[in-house]
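Predict the 3D structure for this chain.
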Amino acid sequence: MEDDTWLSIGDLARRTGLAVKTIRYYADRGIVPPAGRNAAGHRRYRADSAARLTFVRTLRDLGLDLETIRKVVDREATLPDVAAQHADALAVQIRVLRIQRALLQAVTERGSTPEAMATVPALATMAERERRELINAFLGGVFGGAASDAAVHGIMRTLTPELPDEPEPEQITAWLELAELMQDNEFREVMVGVTDHFAADRAHHGAGVHRDTAAVMCDLVGPALTASVDPVSPEAAPVVDDVVAAFARIVDLPVGPQARRRLLDWVALVADPRRERYLELLAVVNGWSPPETLSPVFNWIERAVAAQQ
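Done. Predicted structure below.
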């Protein structure tokens, strides 16, 4: 160093902890150019170059590219603007990484085959518009023209998945399985059957407020479950009579074999494990509390009514 004003590239390296090669590269890119050269042609820098290099290293550690850094240090762009842009870019990268992690978790947990994996990335990376089209196609196929009914529309809303902008890995994994369920034609037919029962119930009772069939069945069977009444035992007979009578009133049929058959048909629909799985996955995607399982109620009714046919 010739005086206190000038620093050699070696001096800068010692002050900043950067390699001479790195400082030379920054100089060649115009980010920290030398202030001059000595008689031997060696680069010389001013004392403030050390602070500038430290600033550059900080920005590099934050992931900014060199051209953006040059604009910042040369005051062609403000640091707040650049930071905001970089934060937005990182948000996109984070979302992509979350999706990639969720895909890998899905492969691990589900033991996906190469064939099954063909559609997984597309489902996970769907844009909002594409997700909405898939959801609307499923719910539209399930509810059909009944969607104009205010009550039906409300049910559709409760069955609509809303993947957040920044989903957690488990939400993406749940969405993958949910999207596959929506494309399962057999499951769609199950849901159509459940919807048809609801529509018939509405038609019979009118648009007034009344309890749905599942709630009625839970009230009747709940005490028997709590008391551990065996569904095929004689003690179950009075409960079965009450269940059949209540269901007959709901579907506007006389109490008898036809009402029992209709009850078993309905139970087969609502007890389909895919329906309960849909509700579980929906809760994960939407960030809701896990739904209460009604499988014990449906299974009890199915066994008890079948035993007394």
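The chain has 15 helices and three strands.
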